[in-house]
Please model this.
Amino acid sequence: MATIAFIGLGNMGGPMAKNLLKVGHTVTAFDLSDSALADVVSAGATAASSALAACEGAGVVITMLPAGKHVSAVYLGDEGLLVHLPPGTLALDASTIDSGTAKTVAIAANNAGIHFMDTPVSGGVAAAAAGTLAFMCGGSADAFALAQPILAGMGNPDKIFHAGPSGAGQVAKAANNMLLAIHMIGTCEALAMGAANGLEPAVLSEIMKASSGNNWSLQVYNPWPDVMPTAPASNDYKPGFMVDLMVKDLGLARDVASSSGVDNKMGQLALALYEAHQAQGNGAMDFSSVLDLVRPSGE
Ligand code: NAD
Model:
């Protein structure tokens, strides 16, 4: 079992740290939020007064932070972890950030003899709590071999992928969430069109699930209220996965596409639609609430 420093104990990081405790790892934790830290300490973690203090004696560091600027601040510069961690430390950043920052941190880590991987996740808060997250990892094969048994404490071992070199995990995450946004909007349009023409959304959903329109949104995350009791749509669109985060991820996808000469028209249209939905005050709603943007008003 490993001694792990866990930094960033929010909606995702909190349950992930708790799952590491459950499988027997020792966890020292730090978050800027006292309440987030207290929650994980109540599950058996030791509280640290700073990110650096959390790393004392740890062989593994895991960060789960909002965006690239937070990851840079924690790892880089004179105050950052990389100049203080002993060579041979394994550092895993599970945050969803831009691949450029992931590569910059990886180069600095490599220069300091530290194994760094970008390891963003898919699955959301429910999978974080259940310990069934998917991980998409960018970095060396050696680092991946070290990371696998640690990540298995928080995710489904069959869904831990080595996407490629540093930054590849973040590119995979951006590609996946761009596709998710597009098929969610498409699913909403298809259901709205059917309902506006007299079809029952539940019946149309079954037809499309058995036909070539089948997709993940239909299978486990139906956006129409009361078709699927477990979906956020049947719980007033309580997230789940917030519109604000989808906008962030589609911005990352736009940047990956434009920096590599890819014309992602559908991804950019999805970003524009989610931004319009966000501007109507829906940023904290689940992303499947984008149905409201496409169905006739008053329905
Ligand atoms: P969150 O805002 O709930 O948690 C982030 C935590 O980081 C907060 O508790 C904050 O206090 C802490 N933090 C910020 N800067 C810090 C610092 N310098 N030192 C220590 N702690 C610091 O966010 P979340 O929902 O847990 O998401 C974390 C990451 O996971 C994001 O990149 C997000 O895009 C990604 N993600 C989220 C979901 C989801 O469904 N929520 C799903 C997949 C991926």
User: Anything to note?
Assistant: Strands lie at 3-7, 26-30, 46-47, 60-63, 90-93, 115-118, 121-122, 133-138, 155-164. The pocket of nicotinamide-adenine-dinucleotide is lined by residues 7-13, 30-33, 36, 51, 64-66, 70, 73-74, 95-96, 121, 124-125, 241, 245 (CB under 6 Å). The longest strand covers residues 155-164. The chain has a mean pLDDT of 97.
